[in-house]
Write the structure tokens for this entry.
Amino acid sequence: MPGFSCRVCLEVEITESVLQQGLAAFACLNRIEALGCAIVLDDFGAGYASLSSIKHLPLVRLKIDREFVHDVEHNPCSVAIIETILTLATKLGMDVVAEGVETEAQLQRLKTLGCRIFQGYLFGRPTDPAALLPALRVPVS
């Protein structure tokens, strides 16, 4: 398509629980990455990921678990965890997505912490895939 560029056309999201499967999971994820897919770690901070596993995975993005976003306006522990995740991701060359953003106050607090990518009900509710089809059609010239 003229004028359209895509660095990565497919992202594969995994949860931290996948990391419990050990070396076999790492090998599989490395093969997926070698095919040109991006690997994203979902719900980061809520489960099983160790810093060692993060170091060895071909991740492009961490998604901060909504548990920390939920009370970011008034919980210093959540703020500290989010700041740490943002710093870690930046140092490792990864993007960060804050999941579960539901209020303008959460959004503004996350922005002040340095987060730039957001996901949640504040931006839109889940949509039936069939309802998205008209928006995905590319006009033919």
Q: What stands out?
A: The beta strands are 11-15, 38-44, 59-64, 95-98, 117-118. Helices lie at 23-34, 51-56, 66-70, 76-91, 104-113, 129-136. Residues 36 and 45 are 26 Å apart (CA to CA). Residues 11-136 form a domain with the TIM Barrel fold (CATH 3.20.20.450).
